[in-house]
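Predict fold of Acyl-CoA dehydrogenase; 334 aa.
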Amino acid sequence: MPIDPAWMTETAEQRELRAVTRDFFAAHGNDDGLWKRMAGELGVQGLAIPEKHGGAGYSFPELAVVLEEAGRALCAGALLPTVVLAANTLRLCGDEQYLPGIADGTLSATVAFDGDVRERDGTLSGSADFVLGGADADLILVRAGDRLFACEPDAATRTPLRVLDETRPQARLEFRDTPATLLGSADVVPRVLDIGRAALAAEQLGGIGHALEATVSYVEQRRQFGRPIGSFQAVKHRLAALLVEYEAARSATAYAIACVATESPELPVAAAAAAIVGTGAYRLAVAEYVQLHGGTGFTWEHPAHRYVRRARADEVLFGTPQNHSARLAVALGL
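Predicted 3D structure, encoded as tokens:
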């Protein structure tokens, strides 16, 4: 089923949302109370949640705008596990109990799909590593066998992990006869992960945009041999190549986001393509961010290293580029 190009064109309302969100994250991105403030002032958590569950009832492209700006500012790390992964898992399972709490910002959540967890008589036993936001989430959705369960986090042992990207905390979860509530079949997991890949591509797009803009600004100001270094042809070529990759990532991401919004069967292909293109573009962006800033780019005081960490961590978050290429080949029958 072809996608209407209108789904891939930014509307005036989305541009306004982008401007407001960018200003908000610039002013409050490092605040301790960011999550509550986002809910109270912008209603971010409920943007793409249906109105019947207390949300605003907008579509995934509006949420993607916020995710892109969060990726640009490297903040609001709980959005991906809560509003994207957990909320869509609950929605696809037909849950009506937890979505209102996510929509109003009073509940944060995460998912543990890849652990070694078993269910017996309504309790869970086992463990799951590298769970996004697992140390602080108010609700954990766990895959055990071919079913999904919801459990209260206080009943599990949670150990924060030391990870490369500290802006996206992760934890190890251990379950020992932990009471859990059945949500439904784990058949929804592949689709949730594809939605997560589209969301991650939007975040990556924000990081690429920041790196490109910051680098262009720097090379326009930094002078060598009596002229801005941005006037040298070698620097121009490198930034032009990055811009090409950025636009390619933007196109692939827009298509994946449109596939999520329209519930297109093409989502697995679109999500894999966006993951491959976005990861490559982000890797190039952070490399140029560091290199073209010269010695400054290698210092801890400069923010470039934070984007390097995010780009590297994102490469393996929902599978490596090689994994995505293999999935894409299978989906296309190659």
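Residues 5-80 form a domain with the Butyryl-Coa Dehydrogenase, subunit A; domain 1 fold (CATH 1.10.540.10).
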